[in-house]
Amino acid sequence: MKIIIGVCIYALVAFISIVFFDVAWEGFLGMFILLFMVTVITLTFGVTVQSTNKMLRINKSGELIQATVMSIKQTNSFDGPDPEVILDVRVHEPDGSTYRSIIRGSLKLVELPAYQPGKKIEVVRDREDREQVVFKHRFFKELQEKHRKDMAKKQAKQEKKWQGR
Known about the structure:
Blueprint: H1 2-21, H2 25-61, E1 63-79, E2 82-92, E3 98-106, E4 120-125, E5 133-135, H3 140-163
Helix pairs in contact: 2-3
């Protein structure tokens, strides 16, 4: 919606400039194409960076849990040589209950056989929002340890601050 509004405003400014101020239309067309390209690139890479940040955040502070793969679909997008997939999983709670979740991310080609329907896998879910589930990062233990150390430092700093008052 924001893009449509932006294009309409740009078109209005271009129309007014061309009609009332005798500005060359070629200049506005060139600027429009340039702005369009920048917008597409920003939106494409912005989503990728946001997805990676979410995956790392959940792997740092989330909890490891078992899930069963229900289905796997390729999105025809690639992260380098690795295909991006959408995985429909059934997450298994420690009490025996289950719920479905969708995981979107990239997998190494050699790992694809381990993610076929019916296979049990380890996933990481967000502690606050249990519906948010991501693939287990290969450095999961290291990420968790770093997060624990960072939180301990933060807690010590807070305690020191409160003692100083």
